[in-house]
Amino acid sequence: MNDRPLGRRQFMRYSAAGVALTASSRAIAQAHAIPQPEPAHTEGPVTIRCDVLVVGGGTAGIIAAIQAGRIGAETFLLERNSQLGGAMTTGGVSFPGLFDAWGKQIIAGIGWELVRESVELDGGAFPDFSQVPDRHWKNQVRINPFLYALLAEEKCEQAGVEIAYYEFPQAVRRTTNGWQVDCAGFGTRRRVLCKQIVDCTGGADVVSMLNLPRFRSEETQPGSILFKLDTAHNPGRPNGPGSGLLDSVYIHGADSSNSRTATAANLQGRKAVLTKVRTTKQRLMHLQPEAGFRESYRIQGETVITVEDYTSGRVFDDAVCYAFYPVDLHTRSGVTPKPLARGTVPTVPLRALVPKGSRNLMVAGRSVSSDRLANSGLRVQASCMAMGQVAGVAAALAVAENTTPLKVPLKDIQDMLRQHGAIVPAAS
Asked: Per-residue pLDDT averaged across 186-209, rounded?
């Protein structure tokens, strides 16, 4: 990249154009007159221009957006719900892992920064990563999900990332300079003109809109809805009153791929919780607003991570981050994690984050190109954060170089990741 520091590069800056909401006020003589409301709809869509559009503000999407913004790319983040964090906040899985393997930390960077600050601000405690636990879950970090969501918004703001809640793409098409993404929310139509897209939807929804290949098994892992009976929930605390993890019930057949199936999963989960309240005669003290989903669509990437790659700890030629978790496939009868052999640490290649045959498009999170068993370990939060940071770097550098992510020199991506605190696998 011409050996010039990135700070000297001039990103293309756009001036945001908006359609202002206007309303006429009637002159009413009475002092107690009620102001006239603004019109409910605009004549056309709000149009914005940006360098990088991140779709999905969950575990991976937050990190991708912050990273792209910190490098200097004009970044816009779309999230269909009301807060950032996804499974960690709305879903209630507020115990991310795994950031360590075999006695040392293997995932750091922006995701770890956010988790660490959440714990410190809450006065919480960290596992001792120098110790190898007898059960993997003992090194998952307990966080306060409410603080996590607030800090995520703050870091987005500090990085210059603009957030739009309650919106989701309806159509995506290629343009001469990148993409046109038409989005909808209640009372809002938005057109985003961008150079790069990072799909962090969890189900490769943008990939599907572009008719690029994605796949999943006929049967997916059950989802879960999390709750607490009898004792108030005290998140972020492993000990004391209300401490410990939330309880959960499986939602078999849970499918997050569209609003109809997601609705069905939420209804089924809440019905199961109500049945449990009636049978146990205990008070319901906490209920997450949404079910959590473990499995959805995965992309067909430029390479596919197989379970053999994952369990052997293969170091890919274009490895950009580590992942670490047992093979963890949930079924109707439960789950029996299959730990990795001692010393084994899987890696994620850049090509697994790029849909096959695509340009100017990255995917991060559980939709990573992988077979089902490998994905059961790759899908967890720390690994998704690491993938999100990779996607944010690759997309931002692609904008700077006026190219597509796979054309950016791998060394430049790896160097930028290290500059922002990430841990990059050493070449084998």
From this structure: 97
Amino acid at 320: V
**Residue 307: DSSP 8-state:** H
Please tell me the total number of residues recorded for the chain in this structure.
428
Looking at domain 42-215+297-419, its CATH architecture is 3-Layer(bba) Sandwich (3.50)
The more confidently predicted of residues 167 and 13 is 167
Looking up tokens 């790069």, which residue turns up? Answer: 196
Q: Do residues 428 and 315 lie in contact, with contact meaning Cβ atoms separated by under 8 Å?
A: yes
Rounded CA separation 76/57 (Å): 10
Query: What does the alpha-carbon distance between residue 348 and residue 317 come to, in Å, rounded to a whole number?
Result: 10
- Percent of the chain at pLDDT above 90? 80
Q: What is the pLDDT of residue 240?
A: 75
Helix, strand, coil percentages (3-state) for the chain, rounded to 5, are 30, 20, 50
Q: How far is CA 152 from the centre of its chain?
A: 12
Phi, psi of 79 (to 5 degrees): -140, 125
Nearest to 402 by CA among 362, 355, 351, 360: 360
Residue 221, both tokens = 């892992």
Of the candidates 385, 389, 387, the residue with the CA atom closest to the CA atom of residue 59: 385
Closest CA to 297 of 373, 232, 357, 207: 207
d(CA 265, CA 343): 38
pLDDT, tens only, 68-102: 999 999 999 999 999 999 999 999 999 999 999 99
Q: Domain-by-domain residue ranges, the chain?
A: 42-215+297-419, 223-287
Cα–Cα distance measured from residue 97 to residue 383, given in angstroms and rounded to the nearest whole number: 8
List the one residue out of 181, 148, 226 whose CA is nearest residue 49: 181
**pLDDT tens across 234-260, in order?**
888 877 777 778 999 999 999 998 999
Beta bridge partners of 189: 184
DSSP string, 79-101: ESSSSS-GGGTTS-------SEE
Against a cut of 0.85, is the pTM above it?
yes
Residue 289 pLDDT greater than 60, yes or no: yes
Tell me how far apart the alpha carbons of residues 60 and 117 are, in angstroms, rounded to a whole number: 17
